[in-house]
Each structure stands twice: as C-alpha cells, then as structure tokens.
Amino acid sequence: MQISRVNMSTLTVIKEQVKEEYQFLGGRALIARLLLDEIKPTCDPL
User: Fold this and answer.
1) pTM of this prediction?
2) What CA–CA distance (Å, rounded) separates 39 from 11?
3) How far is Cα 8 from Cα 2, in angstroms, rounded to an integer?
C-alpha cells in the first residue's frame, strides 16, 4: 500500500510506503491520524 504526496509548489509527486500503524485505517481515521502525526498543534488553522 502506498501514499502519494503531491507538492503543488514544485509540481512533484512522491509515492511512499504506508507506515505499519496506518495499514488498517481509512477515510477520516487515516486523515485524522496523518494530521495528528505530521502537523504541529500550534500551527495557524487558516
């Protein structure tokens, strides 16, 4: 299973393997977990 990351600033696409802990997540659960893991809690929401 792979995740595609799209960088719109440089117009590049990177495919990477899904972490073991994400294997059984999907939809909202996967999105929520990625946001919790990769974005600082103090970031500006806008």
Assistant:
1) 0.63
2) 21
3) 19
CA distance 17 to 9: 22
Enumerate residues 6+ apart whose C-beta is below 8 A from 17. Answer: 1, 2, 3
Q: What's the CA gap between 35 and 25, in Å, rounded? A: 13
**Residues in Cβ contact with 14 at an 8 Å cutoff, skipping those fewer than 6 apart:** 4, 5, 7
The answer to whether 38 and 26 have CB atoms below 8 angstroms apart is no
Convert the pLDDT of each residue in 2-29 to its tens digit: 889 999 999 999 999 988 888 888 889 9
Q: Would you call 7 helix, strand, or coil by DSSP?
A: strand
